Amino acid sequence: MPVSIAPISESIGVAVCGLNSSDFTVEQTATQCRQLLATHGVVVYREAHITDADLVTFSRMLGEVVIARTGGHPDFPEISPVSMDPSKSALAGLRRSTIFWHTDGLTDAVPQKATLLTAREVADDGGDTEFANTYAAYDTLPPERKAEIGDYRVVHSVAASQLLLEPDPSPEQLARWNSAPRREHPLVWTHADGRKSLLIGATAGDIVGMDHDAGRAVLDDLLDWSTQPQFVLHHTWTVGDLVVWDNTGMLHRAIPYEPTSRRLMHRTTLVGEEAIS
Q1: Could you list the residue ranges forming a coiled coil in this record (predicted)?
Q2: Distance, CA of 170 to CA of 163 (rounded, Å)
């Protein structure tokens, strides 16, 4: 089958068709993936049907791979099964918060570089994934808005994301969430290549030095701006799809699906290479 490459929209996403699993063991594919990520933020390999072994190989060609500390695949510790079914994933109970826009690893000093996700089983209803390009969102902000937010710093925490699910937690829940790591980051991340992205989403709780409600209004407004249709890619999964995204500039979220759904994804994550500044 001939290989085709086509942008999905002007600001986010590119679709690659015609590759099979063995193609992902070739350096040329990894080089091309890096180039496409830099330009489009999200690469969708349609119905590639990559095997677990080739997923690990391809991930290693793109960078250092995170080894799952818990809930990893029994044969490939680099792979994390993503499911709401406890029999398929030890982390099933923590997946509920992924329905909110977020960037992975913002309670770390160096967030993950990129994520690879492939569909093994899909939901009958829901379970799609959406991505939003915060590079493009920042670039199109009015100059006065950029100046206003340029020096803001934001506290990211597990508690902030969990409060979206449980707005009235018990003291025990709140204590548990507050014991998890939290991190202060600039609202605007200036990357080594000069591009700027927005560090917003579910883990963003407060703007340092600002009243909570006022800070919340700023963060919510920026999230609304960044998730306008022109910045968003909505991906409806087909078994065998592989999606790779730049975690340093893209927000993502899962569209809600039933906890009893058979939906099963296999995910690998690349270790971060750039500290936030």
Answers
A1: none
A2: 11
> Going from the N-terminus, what domains does the chain have, and what CATH number goes with each?
4-87+112-122+236-270 (3.60.130.10)
Q: What is the pTM of this model?
A: 0.94
Confidence of residue 109 (pLDDT cuts 50, 70, 90): confident
Contact residues for 90 (Cβ-Cβ < 8 A; gap 6+)? 70, 71
Q: b/e string for 53-72 if b means 16 or more Cβ within 10 A? A: ebbbbbbebbbebbebeeeb
User: Over the stretch 245-274, which tens digit does the pLDDT of each residue have?
Assistant: 999 999 999 999 988 899 999 999 999 999
- Residue 92: the pLDDT is 42
